[in-house]
Amino acid sequence: MVTRGFSSGRKPPTDADARIPPGQYLEQGFPVLSAGPTPRVRTEDWSFTLKHGPRPIKTWNWTEFNALPLTKMTRDIHCVTAWTKFDTAWQGVLVDDILADAGVEPPTGFTLALSFDGYTTNVPTQDLTAGKAMVALLYEGKPITPDHGGPARLLVPHLYFWKSAKWLNGLQFTERDEPGFWELRGYHIYGDPWREQRYTGDP
Amino acid sequence: MSDGPAAQSPWQTMTISRIEKRTPRVTSFFLEPSRPFAYRAGQHVDVRLTAPDGYQARRSYSIASAPEAGETIELAIERLDDGEVSPFFHDIAAVGDEVELRGPLGGHFVWSDSDGGPLLLVGGGSGVVPLMAMIRLRAARRSAVPVALVFSARVWDEVIFRDELIDFHDRRDGFDLVLALTREAARRPADYSRRIDAAMMEQSMLRLPAPPRFAFVCGSNAFVSAAAQALIDAGVPAGLIRTERYGV
Ligand SMILES: Cc1cc2nc3c(=O)[nH]c(=O)nc-3n(C[C@H](O)[C@H](O)[C@H](O)COP(=O)(O)OP(=O)(O)OC[C@H]3O[C@@H](n4cnc5c(N)ncnc54)[C@H](O)[C@@H]3O)c2cc1C
C-alpha cells in the first residue's frame, strides 16, 4: 500500500541497497536497546563459562579469556527495531577458538547465550561456529562500553542483533532449541533479517 | 513455522480518525483498526510508510490508549525536525488517511492491574506514552494498585497529557504525579525543577505505601540509562526495573 504523501529524501545509495535487508533503514549512529538497567560488570568480577546443560565444561577469568586468540570481524548489523549499521568493527574470540581451548567439539545442535543480568537468547550451534560468531571484547579498537554490552558481548552478525547478547557470561549447549528471553516474549525463534523473521509467526 | 493464520499479512491498514495536538512538539493520532486488535498496556506497534517507488520507512510507536478504550488506538508522536517518519505524521498525515501497522508488539514492558503493585513509573518526554496506557488502564478498571509517575519534561507546556494526569492525581485514589521540569521552575508543590536523580527517586517512592514491586522506565536511551541508575542508587533492585529505550 502506498502511503498518501510519503516520499523520502532519505534513500540509501543504490549500491547500498543490496546490503540492507527488507524493512530496514541505514543508521549512522549506534542506538541502544535493552530490557533493563545496564549492568556494570567489572573485569575483576567477570568470568565466562562454557556449559553442556547444567554441567560446566570450562570457565575463564578475564585475563585467561583475553589470552585466547583475538580475531577481527567487521560486519553489517541489523536490529529488529529496523536499523541497519554498516561496517561495525569488532575484535574478540571466535566461538571456534573457545571450543578449541576447551578441547571439545560442540556436543549438541543448540546453544543458549547467558548474560550477567539473566538475559538469555538461543542460537543454533552451527550459527556460532565456522567463523560465524565471536565473543567480542573490543568495538572500534576500544573496550566495549557497558551500554553496548561490555565487558564482553556475543556477536552473531548474520542474525537480528538481539541474538548478540550483551554482558555475556556463558554459552550453554542444550539438547533442544530452547527459546530465550525475547523469544519467549514474541520475537522469532531464529531471527534471520534477510527473511524478515522479526516476530513469532513470521515465516 | 507459523503460529498465526498463514495467509494473513501481519500488517493491517488503520485509518486516522482524529488528530489532536498535545504539546508544541507532540501530536496524538487516533487510529481505527481494520481487523480486531487486542493489546496490553505498554506494548507498541510498528508503523510502515511506503513511497510510490516502493521505498519503505518503518518505526516503532508505543500505544498511549488503554485496552479498555475500545477499538481506537492512540499514538502520541514527537516531532524530530530532521527525522523521516515523525515529520510525515506532523506535516502530512490527515484524518481519513490510511497507514500500515503491525502489532501489538513487545511482551516485557507490559503491565496489567492483575500483576499488582505498587508501581513506580519513570518517563522522559515521549517516553511517558506506554506509561500513560498503564495509568489509563488502572483508572478505567478502578484499580487500587498504588502508582507513582515521575515524569521529566523540559517545561510545563511540554508535559504530554498534563491535564489528564493532574485529573488522575486529584482523585487521590492512589495515583501520584511528580513532575521534574528540567528548564523551568516547578509549579506544583510536589514537583522538581531539575533532572531525575537518586534523591528524587527516594522521595517519590515514599509516596507509595510500600516499596515498588515493579519499576518501568521509558524514554530516550540517555534518559533511561540515567533514570535506571538513579533507581538502583535509590535502592531499587535491578531485577524489578524494566526499561523501554527509544533507541536514540
Ligand atoms: C519500542 C519503541 C517505542 C517508541 N515509542 C515512541 C512513541 O510513543 N512516541 C515517539 O515519539 N517516539 C517513539 N519511539 C521512537 C520512534 O520509533 C522514532 O525513532 C522517532 O519517531 C524518530 O523517527 P523519525 O523517522 O522521525 O526520525 P529518524 O529519521 O529515525 O531520525 C532520528 C534522529 O536521528 C537523526 N538521523 C538519523 N539518521 C539520519 C539520516 N540518515 N539523515 C539525517 N538525520 C538522521 C536525525 O537527527 C533525527 O533527529 C519509539 C521507539 C521504540 C524503539
UniProtKB/TrEMBL annotation, chain A:
Keyword flag Signal: no
Annotated keywords: Oxidoreductase
Domain Oxidoreductase molybdopterin-binding: from-to ranges: 36-182
Enzyme class: oxidoreductase
EC number: 1.-.-.-
GO molecular-function terms, A-Z: oxidoreductase activity
Region (Disordered) residue spans: 1-22
Keyword Ubl conjugation assigned: no
Protein name per Swiss-Prot or TrEMBL: Uncharacterized oxidoreductase YuiH
Organism: Mesorhizobium escarrei
Gene: yuiH
Automatic annotation (TrEMBL), chain B:
Organism, as annotated: Mesorhizobium escarrei
Domain of life: Bacteria
Stored Gene3D superfamilies: Nucleotide-binding domain of ferredoxin-NADP reductase (FNR) module (3.40.50.80), Translation factors (2.40.30.10)
Cofactor field: [2Fe-2S] cluster
Protein name: Flavodoxin reductases (Ferredoxin-NADPH reductases) family 1
Domain FAD-binding FR-type: 9-111
Pfam families recorded: FAD_binding_6, NAD_binding_1
Stored PANTHER family: NADH OXIDOREDUCTASE HCR, PROTEIN RFBI
